[in-house]
Structures are given as structure tokens and as C-alpha cells.
Write a structure and sequence with these properties.
Number of domains: 3
Number of strands: 0
Distance between the termini: 72 Å
Shape: flat
Structural class: mainly alpha
Order of helices and strands: HHHHHHHHHHHHHHHHHHH
Strand content: under 5%
Largest sheet: none
Number of helices: 19
Radius of gyration: 24 Å
Helix content: 55-70%
């Protein structure tokens, strides 16, 4: 079957190549061809460095790294919904999802029931994101006459994982279109954008439709049920309020809490992120910088909280900052975006520390906006080129300063 597919694509290629009948649709042909097969064009000359890890495989690795998160997203979304239904005395759903879910049941003690319930929310959101985003990507590739970039393969899953499970599908479409078109394509496409497209789409939805993106009613996929996240509870009344909801630190670390679909399980995020660090797709300097910036800033605010009448977030320990909200997901998957992050090794430290500091600063100083990692990363994206510029200029100055000493020694 693979051989026949290769033959079919080879037969179609002349029609899409330069001078062919469908020349302007070559980008669409190339997308399908490279989806199933490695690119046929290779650089043969000796001056070139060749590596099997091309862009398509890099994006594939990032997508694979989200598998633990997707698995936990399906289970926890279903677990939160089934638990809420049990608390409200609801025994079945009279919706299109209910046609399937009524067969497997709604027992929160059943792994299968929880997974299927969450799956029925995750898959429609992801497929909507993928299809709507693909339409935008293909449209721009045909208009501009360039290849369909593989970057959307990662953008689609990261964007979906940042959304609450109750997000309407029409809103999912608006968000991904905003992120791709205004966050990437207007600047030239993959590799030329200076802000993360997935976070840009998520930020658009937050500010355009705040009622659907925040509050206690958006995190559990059951109508009429409110379930506060650990971060919102801490922002309101501190750790005592978190404990009152029955959420422990281990619950927030493993992911047994309400929240955005893919941001609840720090454990799953760290497992997937470790794979990116091992393959060197993600920069360990950025991750370490974000963590250090978060920990030092939270400890600083903890000290201030000991001596004054401040809001409860001043007293939130660093290990809670790590597990609540989307901090871990942002640290491992968003901040390490190779396109929008700093590219110099020293700049990656500064870039990561800036994100960690800003995330805690927004969470603590502005309790009306408890989640700060999204804005912190977008803020750092804007300053990443400036950080690299100063790092490069500092290196140039140091080298110039060494030149007289070298010349003097040679004489």
C-alpha cells in the first residue's frame, strides 16, 4: 500500500510542479507528500552539515511528548465531570455525548468511564483546532506559494491543551485563527513569528470572552456545577481555602484537580518535558531559568508576607506555584519554543528568569488575574530579540578588549 501511494504521488507531481496545471497548489501537494515520506531533496555537498532530525521530526517529537499530558487530560476531565455528576445526583446526559457515555456509565471510580468521558470532550476540541488551523495554514500557503509549515502540528495540540473543557467549539475556531493569522502568518509564517501562536490564540480568548475562560464554572464539564481551581482558591483566601476544597499538594502535582484540559498534571508535564530535554529540542537553560526565577521571586514575596498585611498570594510557597495553574506547562512547552525564545545560551538564562519572575509577579501583585504564566511568556517573547542583541554586543566588547593584550603578547 505504501509503495502504491508513493507511485501515485510521483505520478501527480508533474501536475503540481513548476509549469504544471496545478502549480499554484504545490504547497498542498508537498504537505501530503512529506506527511507520509521523507523529503526527496537532500544536500549532497561536503560543506553542509546533515542531520536526520529535520523540522518535521522535531515537531513530531514535541507532539509525542504531549502523549502523557493528553492521556491525563482525558482521564482527569472525565473524572472531574463524573465526580460532579455524582455530587449533583445526575445519572445520565441528554446530549449528543450522552449517546455514547450512557453506555459506559458515569462512575468516577471507573478508569474506563472517566477516560471515555474526558475523551468525548478532548477529541472534538482537538479536531476542531486541527481542521480550522489547517484551513488557515493551507490558505496562506496557497496565497503566498510556499510550503505548508509543520509548526502548526505542534501549535494545534498545545493550544487545545490550554483550554478549559467547556470551551465552545466556535470559540476554539476563533482562537486558533487569531493565533495563526495574527500571531504568525502576518509576520511571514513559521520561523518568523516573534510571539507564540498557541498562547496568542489563548490570550485572545481570555480577553475577548473572559466569562468562558475564567471563573469557577468553566473547569468542570457539567452544566450548573462550579469547581474552583487550586490557584483561584489560593488567590482568594490562601492555602487554607485550597485545603478547604479537599485539594492537597499531591493532588495538584499528579493532576486530580479542575483546570484547563492539559495543565492540571504537573507529573505528566514533567514526563513529557523530560523527553524534550533529553532530545535537546527544549533548552534546559530556559527551563532552569524559569524555575529559578519563580522560586526566588516567590521566596522574596513569602518574606514580605511575614511582616505585613498583604493578599494571600504573598504567602504561597514556590512548590505550590509550580503545580497550580499552567506554570509547569508553560515552563516546559511554551517558554521553550525554539522560534520565539532567545537563541544565545546566556540569553536563554535571562529569558527564562524573566518569565519566572514575571509569572509570580503577576500572580501575587495582581490577584484579580491569578494566572500569570501566559502573559509572562508573551512578554518575554517580545524581549527575546533584545536580550540576544545585548548578549551578542557584550561578547563583541569582550573580544575587542582582549585584542590589544593578544597583539602585545605576540610582539
Amino acid at each position: 500500500m505504501i509503495k502504491r501511494l508513493r507511485q501515485l504521488l510521483d505520478q501527480l507531481e508533474p501536475s503540481f510542479s513548476a509549469g504544471g496545471k496545478y502549480e499554484k497548489y504545490y504547497g498542498l501537494y508537498e504537505m501530503i507528500d512529506t506527511l507520509f515520506f521523507s523529503p526527496p531533496n537532500k544536500t549532497p555537498g561536503s560543506p553542509h552539515v546533515r542531520d536526520a532530525l529535520d523540522l518535521k521530526r522535531v515537531m513530531g517529537y514535541v507532539w509525542m511528548a504531549t502523549f502523557p499530558i493528553m492521556f491525563m487530560a482525558c482521564w482527569n476531565t472525565g473524572y472531574q465531570a463524573n465526580t460532579a455528576m455524582a455530587a449533583m445526583g445526575i445519572t445520565e446526559l441528554d446530549t449528543w455525548r450522552g449517546a455514547v457515555l450512557n453506555l459506559v456509565g458515569y462512575n468516577p471510580e471507573s478508569f474506563f468511564a472517566n477516560f471515555i468521558h474526558g475523551f468525548m470532550y478532548f477529541i472534538p476540541m482537538y479536531m476542531t483546532t486541527f481542521i480550522a488551523g489547517a484551513v488557515a495554514e493551507v490558505t496562506f500557503s496557497l496565497i503566498r506559494g510556499h510550503e505548508v509549515n509543520e509548526g502548526f502540528f505542534v501549535t494545534s495540540i498545545l493550544y487545545t491543551l490550554t483550554l478549559p473543557p467547556t470551551t465552545p467549539l466556535w470559540m476554539v475556531v476563533l482562537g486558533i485563527w487569531f493565533g495563526i493569522i495574527l500571531g504568525k502568518e502576518v509576520f511571514g509564517g513559521t520561523g518568523k513569528n516573534f510571539v507564540n501562536p498557541a498562547l496568542t490564540g489563548r490570550a485572545f480568548l481570555y480577553f475577548a470572552y473572559p466569562a468562558y475562560m475564567s471563573g469557577d464554572a468553566v473547569w468542570v464539564a457539567v452544566d450548573g456545577y462550579t469547581g474552583a481551581t487550586a490557584l483561584s482558591s489560593a488567590a482568594t483566601n490562601g492555602l487554607e481555602a485550597v485545603a478547604a476544597t479537599g485539594i492537597s499538594w499531591w493532588d495538584s502535582f499528579i493532576g486530580f484537580v479542575p483546570g484547563s484540559i492539559g495543565e492540571t498534571s504537573t507529573l505528566a508535564i514533567l514526563i513529557g518535558g523530560s523527553f524534550l530535554l533529553f532530545t535537546k529540542i527544549a533548552s534546559w537553560r530556559i527551563v532552569a531559568g524559569v524555575f529559578i526565577g519563580m522560586m526566588v521571586t516567590s521566596l522574596f514575596f513569602n518574606i514580605i508576607g511575614m511582616f505585613g498585611d498583604v493578599n494571600p498570594m504573598f504567602n504561597l510557597p514556590w512548590y505550590w506555584h509550580l503545580t497550580v495553574g499552567g506554570f509547569a506547562f508553560g515552563m516546559m512547552f511554551m517558554a521553550t519554543d525554539p522560534v520565539t525564545a532567545s537563541h544565545t545560551n546566556r540569553g536563554r538564562w535571562y529569558y527564562g528568569i524573566l518569565i519566572g519572575v514575571m509569572a509570580v509577579l503577576i500572580r501575587v501583585i495582581n490577584p484579580a488575574f491569578p494566572e500569570g504564566i501566559m502573559l509572562a511568556i508573551l512578554f518575554a517573547n517580545i524581549f527575546a530579540p533584545l536580550i540576544d542583541h545585548f548578549v551578542v554586543q557584550a561578547n563583541i566588547k569582550r573580544r575587542k578588549a582582549r585584542q590589544p593584550a593578544v597583539a602585545g603578547g605576540a610582539s
